[in-house]
Amino acid sequence: MAKGVSGTDLTRSQWAFAFALVTSLFFTWGFAYGLLDVLNAHFQVVFGIGKTQSTLLQLAYFGAYLVFAPFASIFMEKYGYKRGIHLGLSLYSLGAIFFWPSAKFQKYGGFVGCTFVIGCGLCCLEVAANSYIAVLGSPKYAAARLNFSQGFQGVASFAGPMIASRWFFLGKNATTLDTVQWVYLAVAGLGLVLNILFYFCPLPEITGDALAQEMHEAGMDNDSKPFHKQYHCIFGWVAQTTYVGAQVAVASLAVNYLSEQGIGIDKSFASQLFSYCQITFTVGRFVGVVLLRWIDPALLLSFYSIACSVFALGVTYGPGRSGVGCLFALFFFESICYPVIFTLGTKNLGRHTKKGSGLIVMGVGGGAWWPPMAGAIADHISTAQSYVIPFSGYVIMAMYAIGMTISQARSGGFRFRTIDEIAQKRAELDRTGQVERRESDSDIDKKGSQEFVEAV
């Protein structure tokens, strides 16, 4: 393998091409995830199962992240990002293809097994794509870049429920699986096309050694400690686990919640409203790109996580239309949480970057825990009361965000605006004459700004 580079070593054309190609992957798993939540409600009708049993799909999908993420990070540390993407797309297509016989013979267990394989593939893609986008350029705009790329995941997430509301819940399709097999055959074809495109397209490899060297030149030796002492990453994994668990629990029961509010919403219309919730989520993600251009990620996450906690209680106790309004607000404030936790947890890891990325992505496995708990409460009490489970996840996320804000304030003073820590450290060393000046701080900031503008 050729010697690796850091994100700031790429030319403008290399950077733009790599960014666009990897961003296309976010649409891929966003579409799969969007369909998953609607299938949850659809299978309750087709197979006559309860809400708790229907969350086995979430258990398989997100449990795959918990199982496969460590292997994905080890694989990419050895073979690089590009081969990791090939592996992920191959598993993704394989799992989607086997939806066909599962639908043909109407085997719910088959759907659960196929969902696990798809989850393994998407886990591999997330370790590669999230990490690659985060390190692809100036650290100052890592959270903004990742929010922008994940915005396309949001676009795909509401496209899935819109397709489902049109084809899964209307007419005879409300009680059959005929259309499910065709949709997933198309999903498999999408994965195959992307795999071919990545095979023929060059993708610069960004290595941990190159990232470590960039840090060391600025006098930062954060990666000199062993990985188990990278506490911002370890606690980031905890926060990601609880947040994703909360997000998935909210989404998996959203169709049921909307249809049970007693304001004339049936399952088909509830599915459409759920797609509007996903649109709200996506809009929130692109709004987050703009906010993160100026506001410190840890500080903004603190505000958003507190808002999520408040609106989760609003969904639980708000009657009728007020509860629906709180649900929409909850989707908006969830928008930036995943990418910001990822960038906070993996920043300044140097040689530990790929390992840290695997750990944070493993936090997606939290989506396997919260939905069954929420589903059990929904079955035995009410769907509205089940939203106290997501509330607990948001509270833990808020603790991490506030803790990171305090930690930053103690080490370098409170900051409202986002900064490039590596550039700042280099500038400090330059002022004391300890290192030879390579670029002025304004030049680095200008380069980061150009990258941000190109992405948008």
UniProtKB/TrEMBL annotation:
InterPro entries: MFS, MFS_trans_sf, MFS_TsgA-like. It comes from the Eukaryota. Residues 428-449 have a biased composition (Basic and acidic residues). Residues 428-456 are annotated as: Disordered. Pfam families: MFS_1. One of its GO terms (cellular component) is plasma membrane. CDD domains: MFS_FucP_like. Keywords: Cell membrane, Membrane, Transmembrane, Transmembrane helix. The chain crosses the membrane at residues 15-36, 56-75, 87-103, 109-136, 148-169, 181-201, 234-253, 273-292, 299-316, 322-344, 356-378, 384-407. It is found in: Cell inner membrane. GO terms for molecular function: transmembrane transporter activity. It is a multi-pass membrane protein. The keyword Protein transport does not apply. PANTHER family: L-FUCOSE-PROTON SYMPORTER (PTHR43702), PROTEIN TSGA (PTHR43702:SF3). This is MFS general substrate transporter. It comes from Lentinus tigrinus ALCF2SS1-6.
